[in-house]
C-alpha cells in the first residue's frame, strides 16, 4: 500500500519511528499492491501472446525443490504445461532420494554428483532452462556450474557475491535472468521507483528514511527488494545507511507487531518505507506486502519462458532482469 501524509503543522504530524512503522504494517493483512504510474509505457498482454505462452513447452529444471520456494516453482511449471525435468540438487551429500511434486518423482542429488547429473541432463534435454532457488552461499558456485555446461538459468536466489555472479555469466556468454525480486507486480513498483529516481534526482533531499522488512524465519539475508528500493530513495536524496534496515524474523513479533497472518508465517514478505522531511512536517509511507509464494513462482515461470525464447531467437543480449521480462509484455495472467 502506498500512503502519503502531508501536513503543514508539525503538531499534527505523528513522529515516525520503527515501531510506528510496524503498526502501519498491521493495517494490511492481505496481499496489497498499488504501483505508481510514473511512466507512459504500458505492459500489453495480447491474447496472441497469452496463447503462445500456453502452447509453449520446454524442459525446466528447478534447483532447490527441497525448499518451499523451489517446490512452488516446480508446481507452477507443471501447471503452465512445461516439462519438469525429474532432477534437482541439494546442498548436502546424502544418498540420492526422491520426492513427489505434481505426481512427478524428482530425484535429488548431492553436491558431489552435480556435474555428472547436469551433464546427463543437458544431453537428454539440450534446450533445458534451470530455475535456481537454493541458498545465498550457493549462488556463485551454482552459476559457475550452469555456465560450465552452457545452461541458461533464472537466478531467483538472493545473496551471494552479486558482482562476481554477473562476471561469471558475462565471461561464459550464457543466457540468464538475474533478479532479486521475481514478483511481477512488485517489479513494476521497483521500475516506477527507478524511473522516479532517474527523472527527479534529489526530490527527497534531506528526508530521513526508515525501513522495516519482515520475512519468514528461514530467510537468512536482508531483503534484496528493500535494498533496491533504498538505492532509489538514496538517489532521490534520502538519508539512509543500509545497515539501519530493521529485519524482523521472530514469529511472535511478526504476528503481534507486524500483523502477518499466522498461516503465512512460513512464507511472507512485508516491507514498509517511511520518509520524513527535515522539519518533520511532511511524511511519506510506501508499503508492499506479500503473503505466500505464488507471486514469485509465477513470475519465475514467466522469466523462464522469456529466457527460452531469447535462447531460441539467438538474441544478442545475454543477461536480463525482471524489468526486461515485464517490458516484453508476453506474460501469462496469473
UniProtKB/TrEMBL annotation:
It is an enzyme of class 1 (oxidoreductase). It is found in: Plastid, Chloroplast. Gene3D superfamilies: Dihydrodipicolinate Reductase, domain 2, NAD(P)-binding Rossmann-like Domain. Its main location: plastid. CDD domains: DHDPR_N (cd02274). Keywords: Amino-acid biosynthesis, Chloroplast, Diaminopimelate biosynthesis, Lysine biosynthesis, NAD, NADP, Oxidoreductase, Plastid, Transit peptide. It catalyses: (S)-2,3,4,5-tetrahydrodipicolinate + NADP(+) + H2O = (2S,4S)-4-hydroxy-2,3,4,5-tetrahydrodipicolinate + NADPH + H(+); (S)-2,3,4,5-tetrahydrodipicolinate + NAD(+) + H2O = (2S,4S)-4-hydroxy-2,3,4,5-tetrahydrodipicolinate + NADH + H(+). It comes from the Eukaryota. Residues 59-182 form the Dihydrodipicolinate reductase N-terminal domain. Residues 186-326 form the Dihydrodipicolinate reductase C-terminal domain. GO terms for cellular component: chloroplast stroma. One of its GO terms (biological process) is diaminopimelate biosynthetic process. Its EC number is 1.17.1.8. GO terms for molecular function: 4-hydroxy-tetrahydrodipicolinate reductase; NADPH binding. SUPFAM superfamilies: NAD(P)-binding Rossmann-fold domains. Pathway: Amino-acid biosynthesis; L-lysine biosynthesis via DAP pathway; (S)-tetrahydrodipicolinate from L-aspartate: step 4/4. InterPro entries: DapB_C (IPR022663), DapB_N (IPR000846), DHDPR_bac (IPR023940), Dihydrodipicolinate_Rdtase_pln (IPR011859), NAD(P)-bd_dom_sf (IPR036291). Catalyzes the conversion of 4-hydroxy-tetrahydrodipicolinate (HTPA) to tetrahydrodipicolinate. Belongs to the DapB family. This is 4-hydroxy-tetrahydrodipicolinate reductase. It comes from Rhynchospora breviuscula.
Amino acid at each position: 500500500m502506498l500512503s502519503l501524509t502531508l501536513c503543514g503543522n508539525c503538531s499534527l504530524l505523528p513522529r515516525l519511528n520503527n515501531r510506528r512503522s510496524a503498526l502501519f504494517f498491521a493495517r494490511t493483512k492481505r496481499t496489497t499492491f498499488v504501483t505508481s504510474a510514473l511512466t507512459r509505457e504500458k505492459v500489453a498482454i495480447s491474447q496472441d501472446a497469452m496463447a503462445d505462452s500456453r502452447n509453449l513447452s520446454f524442459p525446466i529444471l528447478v534447483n532447490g525443490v527441497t525448499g518451499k520456494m523451489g517446490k512452488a516453482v516446480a508446481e507452477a511449471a507443471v501447471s503452465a504445461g512445461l516439462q519438469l525435468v525429474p532432477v534437482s540438487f541439494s546442498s548436502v551429500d546424502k544418498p540420492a532420494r526422491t520426492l513427489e511434486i505434481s505426481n512427478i518423482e524428482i530425484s535429488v542429488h548431492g553436491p558431489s554428483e552435480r556435474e555428472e547429473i547436469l551433464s546427463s541432463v543437458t544431453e537428454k534435454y539440450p534446450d533445458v532452462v534451470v530455475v535456481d532457488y537454493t541458498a545465498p552461499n550457493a549462488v556463485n558456485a551454482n552459476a559457475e556450474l550452469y555456465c560450465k555446461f552452457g545452461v541458461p538459468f533464472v537466478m531467483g536466489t538472493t545473496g551471494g557475491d552479486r558482482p562476481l555472479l554477473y562476471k561469471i555469466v558475462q565471461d561464459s556468454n550464457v543466457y540468464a535472468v538475474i533478479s532479486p525480486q521475481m514478483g511481477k507486480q512488485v517489479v513494476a513498483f521497483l521500475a516506477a521507483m527507478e524511473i522516479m529516481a532517474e527523472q527527479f534526482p534529489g526530490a527527497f533531499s534531506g528526508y530521513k528514511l526508515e525501513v522495516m522488512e519482515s520475512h519468514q524465519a528461514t530467510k537468512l539475508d536482508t531483503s534484496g527488494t528493500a535494498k533496491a528500493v533504498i538505492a532509489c530513495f538514496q538517489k532521490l536524496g534520502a538519508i539512509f545507511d543500509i545497515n539501519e534496515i530493521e529485519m524482523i524474523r521472530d514469529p511472535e513479533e511478526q504476528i503481534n507487531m507486524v500483523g502477518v497472518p499466522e498461516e503465512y508465517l512460513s512464507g511472507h514478505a512485508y516491507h514498509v518505507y517511511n520518509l520524513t522531511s527535515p522539519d518533520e512536517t511532511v511524511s511519506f509511507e510506501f508499503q508492499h506486502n506479500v503473503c505466500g509464494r505464488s507471486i514469485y513462482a509465477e513470475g519465475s515461470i514467466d522469466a523462464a519462458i522469456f529466457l527460452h525464447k531469447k535462447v531460441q531467437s539467438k538474441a544478442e543480449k545475454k543477461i536480463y532482469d525482471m524489468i526486461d521480462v515485464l517490458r516484453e509484455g508476453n506474460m501469462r495472467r496469473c
